[in-house]
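Final report, results section. Input specification for complex C-07:
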Amino acid sequence: MSNHPSEKEKEGMLAACLLNVKAKCPLVHNITNYVTVNDVANVLLACGGSPIMSDEPEDVSDITSICGGLNINIGTLNKRSIEAMFVAGKRARELGHVTLLDPVGAGASKLRTETAIRIVEELHPDVIRGNISEIKTLANGCGTTQGVDADAADTVTDENLDAMVSLAKELASRFSCVIAITGAIDLVADAGHCFVIRNGRPEMSRITGTGCQLSGLATAYCVANPDNKLVAAASAVCLMGLAGEIGFANMKEGDGNSTYRNRIIDAIYNMTAEQLEAGAKYEIR
Amino acid sequence: MSNHPSEKEKEGMLAACLLNVKAKCPLVHNITNYVTVNDVANVLLACGGSPIMSDEPEDVSDITSICGGLNINIGTLNKRSIEAMFVAGKRARELGHVTLLDPVGAGASKLRTETAIRIVEELHPDVIRGNISEIKTLANGCGTTQGVDADAADTVTDENLDAMVSLAKELASRFSCVIAITGAIDLVADAGHCFVIRNGRPEMSRITGTGCQLSGLATAYCVANPDNKLVAAASAVCLMGLAGEIGFANMKEGDGNSTYRNRIIDAIYNMTAEQLEAGAKYEIR
Amino acid sequence: MSNHPSEKEKEGMLAACLLNVKAKCPLVHNITNYVTVNDVANVLLACGGSPIMSDEPEDVSDITSICGGLNINIGTLNKRSIEAMFVAGKRARELGHVTLLDPVGAGASKLRTETAIRIVEELHPDVIRGNISEIKTLANGCGTTQGVDADAADTVTDENLDAMVSLAKELASRFSCVIAITGAIDLVADAGHCFVIRNGRPEMSRITGTGCQLSGLATAYCVANPDNKLVAAASAVCLMGLAGEIGFANMKEGDGNSTYRNRIIDAIYNMTAEQLEAGAKYEIR
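Structure output:
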């Protein structure tokens, strides 16, 4: 995809990614936080993949070897799990497996910032998915992330979109990976192209772990679509956002964020290739 | 509130607490068990707060510094997380942040009893919330808690209510904190006053983690209402109990404890200040 | 049950097991993975039992002492939790408590295989419940488990049923325990008899943790029915499968695996002795 794909070329791209996941049932090794791990497992099963979790340094090399990809999420990192991330990440790299980094809370603590940067430098993840504050922390080597949510000052908006698209491409080039910055507007970029995605609902931020779930999905999508990780990651972002829209449309009086969480995973479980193609709202810059 | 508040003074107290949480979006650092952590995160988001979890000693000082309060729950304590509790608790104290202790299983093991007592003595939590068996263990320095539920012999009833109210006030005075003893009848006391709260449903005990969720809520309520932690904690207790009633009223044929869990969190998500004021059932002694 | 029970003897067996659980409220100590731990806790509450989780070596001896049984699940094992498994397992054995092993991922890594085998050899669990790949790994001392799901080549089918029943009985004899091999057809065997159970739905494999939940249930059922662990474990397997059928029958348009998870636990919460007797589909070989 050396130039912007034509409308004809775009047709069916996302559908193909989804169908590959369902056909190949990618096995994903997750070293992830204990807050949202159950939802990550269920969303991987929902999309057609298969999850396995392991964060003991002595266990992860064997486990990652039988998987197709590795999803590293630093949401509740500790010394043992950090060691496991590097053992698994090096093994995944030796085997040519897809690795994704979700730098949860990078910028909010020294340990998180340093660990995320070390992972980028030493493990060379294929995809980095975070909110804008986390991604800027990786870009700058430091940050001011407030908790696990993006700073308001950092939001991607229509006003700063050109600059943000350039930033995403620049970082993708610098880190030789796909960069996914998610928020009200999602950006998924490699050095040459950036998907600007407008799926999703603001209410998704009132559920814990929609970002973690997306990182799991993006890993599975890249494992099943290894020849085009940009489109694979963008498909996963569209899928998550569209599921948020469908899940919200199914909400009834009295439903809140707990039921919404279930409905989003349910929507991913039921998503067809046609639905994804028809519902995805994106442009490529 | 040096004397019993008049009906006029009481009016709107709980509503004000709820509105402050929604306005201030308190960020709560949770060092909590991995059993119910996802529900704690979702209930904090539901009430209008924001959760962050971290239990690595090297990480917690930074994390607690950016938060407004610290929720310490010993439900699945281990040596690393115990160390993290003290590092975070000392930092929270330095910064004047609200700290809540949920002494899960105090009395059921030596490690839990000793850890809970050390936390009370060294970290001086602003609020302690537990069942009667756990609270009595803190009072007596030892206990006979059977598992994570209160001993039947220990229940707060109308028959022993006067004695229990006195115990709650005495402990609140001794530990210089707010004491919340939850069960069929809930007591929330400082040295001078005790809220006797009769919201809730017995079926809530068939869901794992309603106590843990309440501790998260109470922390957020105290962060957003720092000038009256007694009323803030009592508001959170009323909120949880009322959500249990609303959630139960929304149950349909075939629903069980898993759906009930979702409906309770949903009810907290949708709770208005007016609903809370109208539905709270309490007296102050 | 030295011979095949007659139809008359079988009548009410499962119902009696269920009623004993509800009457005795067995307290189960779980050392289990952090992926599905919340569902394990809720399913134990749903069936009428009570869960407690602890995996700190210094805590587990006290905790297991106040429980009736121990459920060991190696799904996210680490060095600390492995140590805790042995401390708790030895204490449970001293006290004559029921111990169940769920060898999640045995065969998928050296650490999992070796840990599972050491648990069998040193702790002599009363029940081992796993998929066929995991159980074969225990039988052979090594394995080729792909992730946490059974290998397709290993499935129990009508074609290989006789051989599989023999294998289950042989292993039960060799390990002096009840062996539960779960999959499309479930086998629950001691040395002399094997329940062949045909409850359940294929869609249950699209939910994370139905196996972990079943292990929790089987532990509770054995604690409450200590004189016949074979029937107790078989009752739990029928209960889980039947709940899967009832939960599936309650699915509505748009529901997926997340809602299905809730409906299964709900069905266990509402299951009556009569429903279980009427819905269980098994023969004894």
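The first strand of chain B starts at residue 27 and ends at 31. The radius of gyration of chain B is 17 Å. This concludes the modelling results for the funded period.
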